[in-house]
From TrEMBL:
This is Floral homeotic protein GLOBOSA. It is found in: Nucleus. GO terms for biological process: positive regulation of transcription by RNA polymerase II. One of its GO terms (cellular component) is nucleus. Residues 84-168 form the K-box domain. Residues 84-111 form a coiled coil. Pfam families: K-box, SRF-TF. GO terms for molecular function: DNA-binding transcription factor activity; protein dimerization activity; RNA polymerase II transcription regulatory region sequence-specific DNA binding. Keywords: Coiled coil, DNA-binding, Nucleus, Transcription, Transcription regulation. The keyword Nucleus applies.
Length: 202
């Protein structure tokens, strides 16, 4: 006896539905592989289960992307909307910019410059000169900051304003001691009077 004809409608029982899905999915994949081999056809099958799990097959001689491109050209249907096309164009633009920057970086390293003409070499030389000038300016700036920090630390070592404030608050100020202390200080850190004759009055 032959098999009875099955009514094509949704299977309500979830277990029976899952078993039927697995069997028929495997059957479709098998048929897709067979027609791809027997008939040298390009076949692509994508199946999404109700759970969201994806199953796919594509002929070894092609890729899914190539299949979709061919479908787009032959059918004339738009597979991507304007938003996706803009995103694709933006990605391509960024890739080109990245490639250009990689080439420019190699040129700055002195690599792959044999293909450059005289004008391009002059532009490259100018860019390198500007880079060296900027680098030297930054180095000088850092050296100047370091010198200022060192001078500040030296002043902290030779001058202690707290001791002077305490002596002034107590009304005791040993001028001879201060003179001896200043004599030991480096000339660069000595306090020079605005009027030279002021010290003679003491």
């Amino acid at each position: 006896m032959g098999r009875g004809k099955i009514e094509i409608k949704r299977i309500e029982n979830s277990s029976n539905r899952q078993v039927t899905y697995s069997k028929r999915r495997n059957g479709i994949m098998k048929k897709a592989k067979e027609i791809s081999v027997l008939c040298d056809a390009q076949v692509s099958v994508i199946i999404f289960a109700s759970s969201g799990k994806m199953h796919e097959f594509c002929s070894p001689s092609t890729t899914l992307v190539d299949m979709l491109d061919q479908y787009h050209k032959l059918s004339g249907k738009r597979l991507w909307d304007a938003k996706h096309e803009h995103l694709d164009n933006e990605i391509n633009r960024i890739k080109k910019e990245n490639d250009s920057m990689q080439i420019e970086l190699r040129h700055l390293k002195g690599e792959d410059i044999s293909t450059l003409n005289y004008k391009e070499l002059m532009v490259l030389e100018e860019a390198l000169d500007n880079g060296v000038s900027t680098l030297k300016a930054k180095q000088n700036e850092m050296i100047e900051e370091e010198n200022q920090n060192l001078q500040f630390k030296l002043r902290q070592l030779h001058l202690d304003p707290m001791d002077e404030n305490v002596m002034e608050s107590q009304g005791v100020y040993d001028h001879q001691g201060v003179a001896d202390y200043e004599a030991q200080m480096p000339f660069a850190f000595r306090v020079q009077p605005m009027q030279p004759n002021l010290q003679e009055r003491f």
